[in-house]
Amino acid sequence: MKKVVFVLFAVIGLSAFAQDANSSSALSKGSWIIEANTGTLTTGSTAFSLASTDGFTVYSVGMEGGYFVSDNLALKAGLGYVGGDNMDGQFNYKIGAKYYIIGQIPVGIDFTGTSIDGDGANWLGVQGGYAWFVANNVSIEPTLRYNVTLDEMKAQSAFQGLIGFVFHF
User: Fold this and answer.
1) What distance in Å separates the CA atoms of residue 109 and residue 89, rounded to the nearest whole number?
2) 162 in helix, strand or coil?
3) Which side of the chain, N or C, has fewer Cβ within a 10 Å radius?
4) Taking the alpha carbons of 36, 45, 24, 103 in that order, is the dihedral positive or negative?
5) How much is the pLDDT for 5?
């Protein structure tokens, strides 16, 4: 695990030198973002994932979108669904904010929830990462996230590693 984290940060650090400095226009007030994440399936996920263990398969699909209310600050919302073999479907939702420090370091905070047959759990999520703009309106954002449970009797806190593909328009 330490090697994976080290390699991830090394790639992020080296890619900073290749960053296109014109990304700031994509983060201006009045702009929109659509974000699709891939990563681990945990707590209220709005990411795309697929896992199979001992013949049991579980998947998640979801998207997030947001609007920049000021330069570098977007308000976001997301929806997701988790399903799989021999399990009831689970709807997930998220609402929060994302701020880009110096236009390259996205940090966020959000309220995430899940609903399974009318019952659910909630988390407070905090995250940070790096925005690598591969074009003026497209960024790849490796992110580390921690979800703090708000319902200890129903769910646990969890750590996630995500890679986001963000479209700015």
Assistant:
1) 26
2) strand
3) N
4) negative
5) 42
